[in-house]
Design a protein that fits this description.
The complex is a heterodimer of chains A (about 375) and B (about 230). Chain A is built from 15 helices and 8 strands. Chain A has about 375 residues and is an alpha+beta fold. Chain A has a domain of about 250 residues: Cytochrome-c3 Hydrogenase, chain B (Orthogonal Bundle). A 3-stranded antiparallel β-sheet of chain A has the order 1-2-3. The relative contact order of chain A is 0.19. The N terminus of chain A is likely disordered. Chain B has 6 helices and 8 strands. Chain B has a domain of about 110 residues: Beta Polymerase, domain 2 (2-Layer Sandwich), CATH 3.30.460. Chain B is about 20% helix and about 20% strand. The chains are: A alpha+beta (about 375), B alpha/beta (about 230). At the A-B interface, helix 1, helix 3, helix 8, strand 6 and strand 7 of A face helix 1, helix 2, strand 4 and helix 5 of B.
């Protein structure tokens, strides 16, 4: 019973195979490199075929939501960096939006644009990291060297802006701490304009690569209906054909003013999820160019709204979410009027998307499981919090 | 279970609607401004930036339709910062959820979590967010009060994604779900003692030797309840 956790339909009963072998239990992880951290999956295999996969999580549980309750509102922000630690900007953003919503704060336009720039840079860097590791998992080592070349530039830009490369702590309730440093925007524009040809290079390596296609086409299918039943958001949902993106569906900041498309796939498999993420790189580039234009045309302005010295949101609750590279990342804040959150819940896209893994993996070979874990794009810091 | 006088003004304000009394909704609307006043920005001039406060939302079409379709389910509704929260009776939760999913197209359960109100009865609020694609990305939040030790009906039969979310609530808050297919701990390990997100769980954690050597450590482990080094979140 416990093996069928959350899977639709029933798992075949244990039976003798033609060779007289029985189903075997196999521990996958938590130290397996392709689990991208400390994910353990208890597999039941019939030969090479997966009968059931049961994720066992919590190895990285640090009690972040408990810690939130002991910190004042500004002190929470560095903790959010450490949830999805390869996409700190979107974590900061989702948290700040939630507190701002409960405070009823207006964010200056310039701060909104800079936030979008940071978000989209983060989306590109997270997708590049995903592309590198997902390809390495399937034996393609070369893309790693290409994508990390560009990711390095983004991390350098982050370092120029806020001093940190990964745990950015770059947003504040009501706006931002610092304006852009001189010359930063020009560096960003040069990088962004160049990025298009770099994305072509990644595509040259993988999109029509026969081995890549053999390993990904038709693997780990999750249709739109099943995505919705499992609460799966982000690239997996879009690869299933539903053009749903928090930036468009529940708009925040100035996304409505920006021109970009929501890429979708149609086969809902690992290959389409790859195509969707590549297309998202191009769309993020498009957004960055528009933001560069706007910021160059409006070089000065407020970067922080009228924030009270001590942040004490009124008693009540609010939820706000952003489109993180992994899916819908939301924060639910319950305030009792004090200077610390009474309860702050993270809606972690990695945790919720991972729940669909047993269904995606059932019936596939063990080696396909590696492709499927990669394609969900989990970060264990966010799964376990 | 130490009572902290610091939260008493605000905690009951948010907690009031969970009481089964029928006209619960107006109470938070009346109570909230009193609790919200001290939160106004101190150094800034008071008249600008209105502080968000909950208003009664029983008249909203969706809430009214739900109250009519599932009699006795809706105990109250409020709207704050553009988000509607409906208080439901625990006994009617699954029926109301099924109705919202099938008749009102709320096919997507965004999230499910709990809030511990410590001294209040019922102690826990379970919070559900639903999303409807067909209604133009409409969202609604449901809230159910659950007593400490009481069983809450599971919604994992309505939305499969509730499975892990309810396991997390069970693990971190100790709320049990009736009818859940696989109610085990998820973030802490089997054999862990206590529920970390309860307000009376010490922030510095417990000596987890309790889980490994239960005969050597007191139940629950960590500093004794009367130890002044034991810190709990207010």
């Amino acid at each position: 019973m416990s093996e069928t956790v959350g899977t639709a339909g029933s798992v075949p009963e244990t039976r003798d195979t033609m060779l007289g072998l029985r189903e075997m239990e196999l521990n996958f992880g938590p130290q397996h490199p392709s689990t991208h951290g400390v994910l353990r999956i208890v597999l039941k295999v019939d030969g090479e075929r997966i009968v059931s996969a049961r994720p066992d999580i919590g190895y990285l549980h640090r009690g972040t939501e408990k810690l939130f309750e002991t910190e004042t509102y500004p002190m929470v922000i560095p903790h959010t960096d450490r949830l999805d630690y390869v996409a700190a900007a979107t974590n900061n953003h989702a948290y700040c939006l939630t507190v701002e919503k409960l405070l009823g704060l207006e964010i200056p336009k310039r701060a909104q644009y800079i936030r979008i720039v940071l978000d989209e840079m983060q989306r590109i860097s997270s997708h590049l990291l995903w592309l590198a590791t997902a390809a390495i998992d399937l034996g393609a080592i070369t893309p790693f060297f290409y994508t990390f070349r560009e990711r390095e530039v983004i991390l350098d830009l982050f370092e120029d802006y806020c001093g940190a490369r990964l745990t950015l702590n770059c947003m504040r309730v009501g706006g931002l701490q610092e304006d852009l440093t001189p010359g930063w925007l020009e560096k960003l524009r040069a990088f962004t304009e160049d990025l298009g040809s770099k994305i072509d290079e990644y595509e040259d390596l993988l999109t029509e690569n026969r081995i890549w296609k053999m390993r990904t086409v038709g693997v780990g299918i999750l249709t739109t209906e099943r995505c919705i039943a499992w609460g799966v958001t982000g690239p997996p949902l879009r690869a299933a054909g539903l053009a749903w993106d928090v930036r468009r569906a529940l708009p925040y900041e100035c996304y409505p003013e920006l021109d970009f498309e929501i890429p979708t796939g149609k086969n809902a498999d690992t290959y389409d999820r790859y195509l969707v993420r590549i297309a998202e790189l191009r769309q993020s580039r498009r957004i960055l160019l528009q933001c560069c234009d706007w910021l160059a045309a409006n070089p000065t302005g407020e970067i922080r709204g009228k924030v009270p010295r001590v942040i004490k949101p009124p008693a009540g609750d609010a939820y706000a979410s952003v489109e993180s590279p992994k899916g819908e990342l939301g924060f639910y804040l319950v305030s009792n009027g004090g200077n610390k959150p009474y309860r702050l819940r993270v809606r972690p896209p990695s945790f919720i998307n991972l729940q669909a893994l047993p269904e995606m993996a059932r019936g596939h070979m063990v080696s396909d499981l590696v492709a499927i874990i990669g394609t969900i794009d989990i970060v264990l810091g966010e799964v376990d919090r | 279970m130490a009572e902290d006088p610091k939260d008493t003004p605000a905690a009951p304000a948010a907690g009031e609607p969970a009481k089964p009394a029928e006209p619960a909704a107006p109470a938070p609307a009346a109570a909230a401004p009193a609790g919200a006043k001290p939160a106004a920005p101190k150094p800034a001039a008071p008249p600008k930036a209105p502080v968000p406060a909950p208003v009664d939302a029983m008249g909203e079409p969706l809430v009214a339709a739900l109250a009519a379709a599932v009699p006795g389910a809706v105990l109250g509704a409020k709207r704050m910062v553009g988000q509607t929260t409906v208080e439901l009776a625990p006994g009617k939760l699954v029926e109301a959820c099924r109705h919202l999913r099938d008749a009102e197209t709320f096919t997507f359960l965004v999230d499910l979590t709990a809030v511990d109100w410590k001294a209040r009865d019922p102690r826990f609020d379970l919070v559900y967010w639903l999303h409807s694609f067909a209604r133009g990305n409409t969202r609604i939040r449901l809230k159910v009060g659950v007593r400490d030790g009481a069983l809450c009906p599971t919604v994992s039969g309505v939305w499969e994604t509730a499975n892990w979310m309810e396991r997390e609530v069970f693990d971190l808050f100790g709320v049990s779900f009736e009818g859940h297919p696989d109610l085990r701990r998820i973030l802490t390990w089997d054999g862990f003692q206590g529920h970390p997100l309860r307000k009376d769980f010490p922030v510095e954690g417990i000596d987890t030797g309790a889980a490994i050597y239960p005969d050597r450590y007191p139940e629950g482990g960590g500093p004794a309840p009367d130890d002044k080094n034991r810190k709990t979140v207010s």
